[in-house]
């Protein structure tokens, strides 16, 4: 049981760090769009490929307002997810070992 608890704790930490990293990728991607980047730049292509799967569905749901606020919505969703899921995994891990 202690091993399972440690695995859950590690997963919670990895998930939290991955979500934080992805949040910063979204921020960087949004900032780059302000400067009209070269669409053939490998960095721009990478950022678009990694962020579009999350941002595209948000854009479909939001009504057009002239300004793309999908990165803001995605960041709020990631922040909410980070406040709920990793702590829940940690609590579950601690409850397994009786801490």
Roughly how many Å apart are the termini? 12 Å
From N to C, what is the helix and strand string? Answer: HHH
By helix and strand content, what is the structural category?
Answer: mainly alpha
Helix content: over 70%
* Principal-axis shape: elongated
Radius of gyration: 17 Å
Question: Would you identify the regions where 5 or more consecutive residues have pLDDT less than 50?
Answer: none
Mean pLDDT: 93
Feature tags:
99 residues, mainly alpha, 0% strand, elongated
Task: Describe the overall structure.
α1 crosses α2. The model has no long low-confidence stretch (mean pLDDT 93). The two termini are 12 Å apart. The relative contact order is 0.19. It is elongated, with a radius of gyration of 17 Å. The chain has one domain. The chain is mainly alpha-helical. The protein has three helices and no strands.
């Amino acid at each position: 049981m202690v091993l399972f608890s440690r695995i859950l704790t590690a997963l919670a930490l990895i998930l939290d760090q991955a979500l934080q990293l992805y949040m910063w990728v979204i921020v960087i991607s949004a900032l780059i769009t302000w400067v009209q980047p070269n669409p053939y730049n490998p960095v721009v292509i990478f950022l678009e490929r990694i962020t579009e799967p999350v941002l595209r569905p948000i854009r479909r749901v939001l009504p057009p307002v002239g300004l793309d606020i999908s990165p803001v919505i995605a960041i709020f969703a990631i922040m909410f997810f980070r406040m709920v899921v990793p702590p829940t995994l940690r609590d579950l891990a601690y409850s397994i070992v009786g801490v």
